[in-house]
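Structure catalogue
Derive tokens from sequence
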Amino acid sequence: MASVKFWKDNVDYFDISRSKGAYPDALEYKEANNKEVVWVQTWEDVKGMHKKTGVKIDMPMHRLFIVDKNNKIKTTK
């Protein structure tokens, strides 16, 4: 996964945690191409320090997961 490699290569002290007051929300769609999956979304806080510049990172991030009937994550966005 390119995004995981980016964080590993560029950020020290990386931390990700659920945003205060946030909770995962499951969405089920009726369209034929989405009947076999559930979309789960949540907000998380991402923190760390950029390795080259020393700039502190502290930002909210919207996360989206597509989960199949076997409770396996198929996709993260």
Summary: The beta strands are 11-18, 25-27, 37-50, 56-68, 73-76.
